[in-house]
Amino acid sequence: MKDLTVRLRQIFGAAGPETAFAPNADTLPATRNLLPLIWLDAPDTATALAMGGLIQPLLATREDLGILLTTPANLSDTALADQMRCVDPPGETPAQIRAFLEHWRPDVAVFSARHLPQGLVAAAQARGVATFLVVPPDLGGMPTGLHAWLRPTFRKLISKFQRIFLEDPSTAPDLRKAGATAQQIMPAGPLEPTLPPLACTEPERDAMAALLRNRPVWLAVALPPEEENLVLEALQRARELSHRMLLIIVPTAPARGPTLADEITQRFGMQVSLRSRDEDPDSEDQVYIADTEAELGLWYRLATLAHLGGTSSGATPARHPYEAAGLGAVVLHGPYLADWPTAHGQLRRAGAARMVRDATELAEAVSDLMAPDRAAQMAFAGWQVSTNGSEVATQIAQTLLDALPTPHGKTA
């Protein structure tokens, strides 16, 4: 596959992908994209990550393809930000919508039924953009509610979608009531996040693994101050059974690292090293604070278990559990799962994750799941769950590719 930066420059022009779209502009240069463009519209982070699963099967089939994502979600700390062009959604006025469509000129558009921007969809359909709709299982729980689908304006929009992908086939009767035809409806299964693995260089991983010398290692990732005592108390108890155990802490704010190190030493009497000081974990260290940016891929690969910060207090947003599961770490989490409840539930049902409610349960889980045979079994189950959305994504991606125009203006 071509270098991504080069391809983005081909798609978006010489200015490169750093040039942002001005959503409030009444007019913009109507420069046609040099490559076919598929546009994904996601109203929230969960939907954006799920739609991101389409990238790999799309580009695996068509390298000469641009992908645009409009979303209010901040994806800057995810691998998706490097794989597609992400911009804010356009405004709602006719002038803003017109400017957006004139600027990007998409060939195919995919919307989510979680939030359907009626004016934008109608304008895209009027321009001849091939539009598709992804309907989540909880259709009746959408902010607009099912009753909104029965309005004439919604019925008109629905009638013009080329395909309506159902994550749950049981929602088909509701779509039929709203005016969709049997030919439009396509049961597809859940479109789940298929997160690109976070980066890590093999030499770095090998060097760090050699330093750890097969020590039992677990990770507390995106750990807020409100949960520091919990994981440290759990570490104290777990080390009673495994004195060589090492906890790697990735704080939510890297600047917290030096202060946290001092507090751990003073309050818990533990030996600590800091990544930001270029310190390597010593054989006597109980805690290693990874207070640097963009190294989560390294820590996930080294840790047997990953406890997700934010899930024990709800104080901060949690990382998506598929990040850890996809890189071989068993997932531990608390009861606050508002960020990714479906993904956590799927991992638990597969036996790839465990919920812990306090320091005692966390210590017990760490001690129990460090056993190599147990951890390997759970890690494999987690990897399967975190990657099983690929079949659905491939099916949807092929349908989108079939709708792209050929160089002669005909659909492929």
Please describe what this structure looks like.
The chain has 412 residues and is α/β, with parallel strands linked by helices. The chain has helices at residues 4-12, 45-52, 55-61, 94-104, 118-126, 146-149, 152-159, 172-177, 202-212, 228-238, 257-268, 296-302, 321-325, 341-349, 359-369, 372-387, 390-402, and strands spanning 37-41, 66-70, 85-87, 108-112, 130-135, 163-166, 185-187, 217-223, 246-251, 272-274, 287-289, 305-308, 330-333, 353-355. It is elongated and about 70 Å long. It starts with a helix and ends in a 10-residue tail after the last helix. The relative contact order is 0.11.
CATH superfamily of the largest domain: Glycogen Phosphorylase B
Counted by DSSP, the helix tally is 17
Molecular shape: elongated
Estimate the strand proportion.
5-15%
Count all strands and give the number.
Answer: 14
Query: Order of strands in the sheet with the most strands?
Result: 3-2-1-4-5-6-7
Indicate the mean pLDDT. 85
Specify the CATH architecture of the largest domain.
3-Layer(aba) Sandwich
Largest sheet: 7 strands, parallel
**CATH class bucket of the largest domain:** Alpha Beta
Distance between the termini: 21 Å
- Helicity level: 25-40%
Number of domains: 2
Provide a brief overview of the structure:
This protein is α/β, with parallel strands linked by helices and 412 residues long. The chain contains 17 helices and 14 strands.
